[in-house]
Amino acid sequence: MNNRLLLFFVLICFSTSAIAQKQLTWEDFADVNFQAQFNEKYGVHFLMPTFGDKIMSYKGKQVSIKGYFLDISGSGEIFLVSQNPMASCFFCGGSGPETIIEVSFKEKPSFKTDQIVVITGLLELNANDVDHCNYILSEATGRLVN
Length: 146
Description:
The longest helix has 19 residues, at about 1-20. About 20% of the residues lie in helices and about 40% in strands. The protein is of the alpha+beta class.
């Protein structure tokens, strides 16, 4: 009886943690379309997103993504997780804005640029503020993969 009870609690804990967060792929973040719109504040056109139903279903939920860690400020102030390493990321290469996610960590990480990490946080979808990425993971934590 005690073994069954223990097994029951282990299964409940495992299923609860599995439900609590969803491991997304970069293909999930590609569920977005972009249209150039003129921005009065900066006097240039920006690609503004329209998010698809699939990615919208994760808005406000805790999700995880595996990618390359980028400290784009160089001083530990602005962090991203990217589908590609720094040399091929959205800012430096030919990738689109759907291949980067801005990360707001609970605690400043010790990761180095281009290390492969898994980042977990609350997914925010940003359709209007051009001073931030379209995807943001807030209250984030991370773990090193390599």
